[in-house]
Amino acid sequence: MTQIWNRLQDHRKAQGDRRIESLFDADRATDYRVQADGLTFDYSKTMIDADARNLLLDLVGPVAARRDAMFAGERINETEGRAVLHTALRNLSGSVTVDGQDVMPAVRDTHARMSDFARRVRDGGFSGQGGRITDVVNIGIGGSDLGPAMAVLALAPFHDGPRTHFVSNVDGADIADTLKGLDPATTLVIVASKTFTTIETMTNAQTARDWMAKAVADPGAQFVALSSAKGKAAEFGIDEARVFGFEDWVGGRYSVWGPIGLSLMLAVGPDAFDEFLAGGAAMDAHFRTAEPAQNLAVMLALTGIWHHQICGYPTRAVLPYDNRLMRLPAYLQQLEMESNGKRVAMDGSDLPVVSGPVVWGEPGTNGQHAFYQLIHQGTMPVPCEFILAARGHEADLAHHHILLAANCLAQSEALMRGRSLDEARALMADKGLTGAELERQARHRVFPGNRPSTTLLIDQLTPFTLGQIVALYEHRVFVEGVILGINSFDQWGVELGKELALQVEPLLKGEDAPGHDASTEALAALIRGMRG
Ligand SMILES: O=P(O)(O)OC[C@H]1O[C@](O)(CO)[C@@H](O)[C@@H]1O
């Protein structure tokens, strides 16, 4: 493996300042893309050439065995001793054994219970103490929030169920703003927490319960729990008929496919939710069977590795040209950074290369008027991953969609092509400038270009295609993780801050709390003073 990394680095150096445009021959636009199941991933506007691609493909040796182990239910999350089977939540007709036991009957049973409950809420068979459920509040954080929150927004054209709200932050402002204006008697509260111990979620859940208790006789009757810790949900006072459980082999950031997706199911209905699952399952089938060079997840992963580990670009921008995908960058931040932001390999040794990149983004065209300046003219290239649907949902606003798509394509073209000093000089000469002033002004208008981007093109954003996209990114993270030798399924890096927060809390209350550094103590004293 080290040899391949070295050869890739050497190859990159040998490319020198060659330009992406110079790689284009008659076939590059079709050779450097992958098409499968209606999705196109175009990576032709990158510096990946034939040699780079061959070397990158040499990295995927260990992926197939690890992938098969994952789908077979082996405990590939070795630091937590768990299987990794979120894929089982969307392949309902299959059979998977963990420790000799088929896990699928329980998965199917929970899915059927969820669907039945969602139907009853949607048709009024299950109602609140003041009548039909009008609003659903999902209380969760991280993977228990980002997936359904992202997907509910993405599938707005299919949303025909109760209004859906999401509360995640322990900042009381979040729940206060959300509950304001809601009627407790017609609101259903979902407490979504795999562990049912997360301090933010449990604090918000208690606040919601107090709010509900002021208005209805039996507040617990309008609560639902989604959790792996069914006992803890019962302790909170939620009837087991409204507890939808899942096993520890579903990681938080991979959990939207099962009970954690209940708010999505309530919003769009069980049939559309099943379409979402079918899209994910279709991507699983593609990932398991397509050759590496024709495999969407593999090539998306290799492009990421090329840009981050080989070219050394520290961040990756995800730029959906689809307003309804506005939460996808935040969703991918958790998926990618919590999964592959690790400094040691599975065996405990230091990683031989850097870990995963910083992932960020905003929908186009908004970002164009905010941070694209840096992307085009800053000193550090930012690989951009554009996502675009060929068709919008607003048939009467098709001209908007053409403009949206034109902007998306124009940005990737501009990033690659840039504008030379001579072109900038000609522009300034046209404006009547001459001499030193022409030169000065022209330099500000130069776009270096040669900045890489990829485009993921889909037909239209639907439950099915959203399922494909989410599963595609999951598998991309998986492939990158296997190549880096990382365990993509644990998250020990979030623990220390959580532990210290518990120890800082007494400091803020003015209680005895030894062991803190001078800066933390001084800041806490200031806060205490300001609070009076
Ligand atoms: O669903 P839970 O157990 O409340 O956890 C929420 C989130 O917290 C984390 O454990 C990180 O703190 C995430 O991995 C997870 O998605």
Automatic annotation (TrEMBL):
| Recorded catalytic activity of this chain's protein | alpha-D-glucose 6-phosphate = beta-D-fructose 6-phosphate
EC nos: 5.3.1.9
Q: In which pathway does it act?
A: Carbohydrate degradation; glycolysis; D-glyceraldehyde 3-phosphate and glycerone phosphate from D-glucose: step 2/4; Carbohydrate biosynthesis; gluconeogenesis
Catalytic residue positions: 338 (proton donor), 369, 498
Q: Which family does it belong to?
A: Belongs to the GPI family.
Provide the gene name from the record.
Answer: pgi
Instruction: Say which species the protein is native to.
Output: Paracoccus aestuarii
**One function term, GO molecular function aspect:** monosaccharide binding
Which terms does the UniProt entry file under GO BP? gluconeogenesis; glucose 6-phosphate metabolic process; glycolytic process
**Which CDD domains does the UniProt record give?**
SIS_PGI_1, SIS_PGI_2
Compartments, record wording: Cytoplasm
Identify the SUPFAM superfamilies for this entry: SIS domain (SSF53697)
> What's this protein's name?
Glucose-6-phosphate isomerase
Q: What class of enzyme is it?
A: isomerase
| Database matches in InterPro entries | G6P_Isomerase, G6P_Isomerase_C, Phosphoglucose_isomerase_CS, SIS_dom_sf, SIS_PGI_1, SIS_PGI_2
